[in-house]
Amino acid sequence: LSLKFGDIGSLKGLVIRLLLTTSYYQLSVQNWFSLHRLQLLYNHSVQATFNATGIHAPATYSFHCEHVSSLQRYDALLVPSSANDLSQLWEVTFIDFQIQGFNVQEGHFAYARDCASFFSPAILMGLVMSLILLLVLAYALHMLIHLKSLDRHYECKASPAYFAQMKDSDMGDEKEPLRNSGNESYELRNQQFGKIYI
């Protein structure tokens, strides 16, 4: 895949050439394409060559990355092909890079496979927070399981006594006047209360 820019300043006939290959992987049961090499040509000769690493996607997809660069601060997906090559003198950075070498339909990119790694900082923070929440939940469940009942402190306490109040009409039925040597006495008819003399 060649991107021809023409004459730019002192660079005559600048061309960026992307060398793509496709391979079949039995594990994923589909074809994948890879960017193997990037070449910078001007003045009708190859001036710099970079080997690409980690730029690949299924053949029916496109590849997208926020930065594809030879700089270390952008993870350096482009590596100079050799120490003696002129690529050491170049710094190449593509911003919002997207490529699809095969199965392009109607001039539009297919669904993009992003270059973001699985363990990005945001995902790592989410995993750490989930782990902390799980530990708190496990501790709470542990405390609930080992919670001791307080019923044993109340087993020895007797239930409060209950005395039914007797109405005056009931008391009238239960007492009977007695005649005994000039003193007025009353005797309860119900013997379970005993005898009371007044």
Description:
There is one protein chain. The protein contains two helices and eleven strands. The longest helix has 25 residues, at 121-145. Strands 1, 2, 3, 4, 5 and 7 form a six-stranded antiparallel sheet that branches. The protein has a three-stranded mixed sheet with strand order 8-6-9, with no helix packed on it. Strand 10 and strand 11 form a beta hairpin. The termini are far apart. Helices cover 16% and strands 40% of the residues. With 198 residues, it is α+β, with helices and mostly antiparallel strands. The chain folds into two domains: 2-116, no CATH class; 118-156. It is elongated and about 90 Å long. This is VAS1L protein. The chain crosses the membrane at residues 118-141. It is a single-pass membrane protein. Keywords: Membrane, Transmembrane, Transmembrane helix. Residues 1-102 form the V-type proton ATPase subunit S1 luminal domain.
| Structural domain tally | 2
- Total count of helical runs of at least 4 residues: 2
Mean pLDDT: 76
Give me the count of strands: 11
What composes the largest sheet? 6 strands, antiparallel
Amount of helix: 10-25%
The portion of residues forming beta strands comes to 35-45%
Low-confidence stretches: none
Using the alpha-carbon principal axes, give the shape: elongated
